[in-house]
Amino acid sequence: MRIGALLFLMVVVAGGVRAETVRFAGGGGALLEAVLFRPEGPPRAPAVVALHGCAGPLPARDHAWARHLAGLGHLVLLPDSFGSRGLGSQCRTGNRSVTASGLRRDDALAAARWLADQPGTPAGGVAVLGWSDGGSTVLATAAWRQDNPPGLLRGFVAFYPGCRQAALNRGARPVAPVLLLIGEADDWTPAAPCRDLAGRVGPRITLVTYPGAWHDFDAAAPLHRMRDIPRSQNPDHGVHAGQDPAAREDAFQRVPAFLDALPPAP
Dienelactone hydrolase domain spans which residues (predicted)? Predict the structure, then answer.
């Protein structure tokens, strides 16, 4: 065991996939708790950091993805940026202390470094995946900055992120390929700014939109309305979220294919 990481739980979840609870230093000196999913055999590249949305970890969705990817051979690490700091769901919080471009980006980089340093992690860099606020964190992490560690970040997958801020940042360019998946009907994080972003950045971003799909299209929950969401187009009207089976199935096939095609990190 490496110094700075505490393993205190290991279980077999399905098909030989093992889940371990670990801790390591995150942004701002916080001690992050995370779940690491290990495949049955030797891991295949790339290892994956997966970032929860504004509600915090949602095992029905997040762990389903982790089991799916680990079942295909990938290491998958799911850090908890909110619970590790004593916070609950942030979906109805307007002014957040833990933001996508701030501490959450720092957490993503810390998680990627920690995962890359573990014995048996494949060389060539780590992929970062995230949902909603985690997807926005993916875009913030993907944007080139002077503090981006060379050779660490291999690729990015952003599920229904908020693209508006990234689209406004005209100087932003991804350090590695990005797969961006979003529903055409999404009224929480609309698809239009993501189209603008992909059109400006060019081939580094592969944009996939799903007609008729809402926010959380890959989640377990059926379609429902959420009210009092301050970071939405119409907080009084609320937003819609819930599974779209066709979009979910496509994503479950498309994401592993994207990961397999990624070249080593620059």
Answer: 32-260
Predicted model pTM: 0.92
235: helix, strand or coil: coil
CA distances from 98 to 71, 80, 231, 234, 259 (A): 31, 11, 14, 23, 28
Residue the block writes with tokens 């979003």: 182
Place of tokens 């301050």: 230
The CATH superfamily of 41-76+87-261 is Alpha/Beta hydrolase fold, catalytic domain (3.40.50.1820)
The CA distances from residue 6 to 21, 27, 135, in Å, are 8, 17, 27
156 has which bridge partners?
A: 128, 178
30, 29, 47, 25: which is closest to 38 by C-alpha?
A: 47
Contact status, residue 131 vs residue 160, Cβ threshold 8 Å: yes
The pLDDT tens digits of the residues spanning 145-193 come to 777 889 999 999 999 999 987 765 666 789 999 999 999 999 999 999 9
Tokens of 172: 């932003």
Q: Which residue is associated with the tokens 């504004």?
A: 54
Sign of CA dihedral 231, 221, 210, 80: positive
Residue 155 backbone dihedrals phi, psi, to 5 degrees: 180, 170
Give the three-class secondary structure for 202: coil
Residue 70: half-sphere exposure toward Cβ, Cα within 13 Å: 27
